[in-house]
Amino acid sequence: MKSMRIPVIFLCAFIFFSTTHAMAAERSRQIKFGTIPVLQSLPLFVAAEKGFFKEQGLDVEIVLFNSAMEKDIAFTSGQIAGYFGDLMTPAVLAANGAKIKMVATNFNTTSSQRMFAILASPKAEDARPEAVARAGIATGSNAIPEYLIIRLLAAKNIPRKSIKLIDIKSIPIRMQMLLSGQVEGALLPEPLATLAEKKGARTLADDKGYGISATVLAFSTDYLKNDPARVRSFLAAVEKASVYINKNPDEVRGIMNRSCKVPQALQSSFPIPKFPVLTLPDQAQVMDIYRWLREKNIVKTDLSYKDLVADGFIR
Q1: Which of 15, 109, 155, 257 is most buried, with most CB under 10 Å away?
Q2: What percent of the chain is modeled with pLDDT above 70?
Q3: CA–CA separation, 268 vs 290, rounded Å?
Q4: What is the value of pTM for the model shown?
Q5: Which residues have C-beta within 8 Å of that of residue 302, sequence separation ≥ 6?
């Protein structure tokens, strides 16, 4: 009987280590994808809640961050495989040596829907765009909101030298200061722009129809190299979610209100965004943002469109 005990022990050990290794491998196959709770990220939450990722054979964890900075730190430290964000941050990260490429645009403004607006305070004495620009517009420094302000006011023939920017990174604080008259103007994203309007703020300019507010899905270049099929499946699930949102807006309102932090006052009335089919990030827009980053000396590295965008992943 003793001669039988050694093989049994080895068999049990083999089963234990095999099972443990399989479980670890399965965990390693999970896609951790980062985002912040904004309207443009709605397809990610819909794909997760409606089972579209699972339909593609994927185990996806949508990792929610309170700020873009937290998300960027998580990406550069390898905690997430990819993330949702604006066009600017991947360029900054890539210029600083991060292995990242954008693979798809999932949202942009149209002639009928905006995402950012420059607003005048309800207490502004002079609400003309040029007057508010001189008095000061609250925004986040060296970020996509600053870029948008410069581009949107340039369209109204207001040059950069005539625009005073006030650095208030916290969007809720920015809105409170706008409504209380502590700043004459501010740039706000939706749905806070609409909420500010309801509280008396006046829109001076918005990004409706300009097509300069794209959001993208980006992945680690190592992940793109090692798991291209899974990235394609991930994007297919996101695209299915976008189509589902467009066809069933009322059914996703609860997901939007909950996951995208829609203010209570707008939860029954704010329009569900419409999402386009996934496309490659527009080269002209990517390079315009890159040149702006170079002009501001935020980016000092020579980068081409191909350094920033990976083709071949959208089905």
Answers
A1: 109
A2: 91
A3: 38
A4: 0.88
A5: none
Domain-located, residue 148 = yes
Give the model confidence (pLDDT) of 160-211 as tens digits: 999 999 999 889 999 999 999 999 999 999 999 999 999 999 999 999 999 8
Residue 291 included in any domain: yes
Domain span holding position 164: 116-206
Phi, psi of 103 (to 5 degrees): -115, -20
Tokens of 265: 């006052």
Q: 187 pairs with which residues across the strands?
A: 118
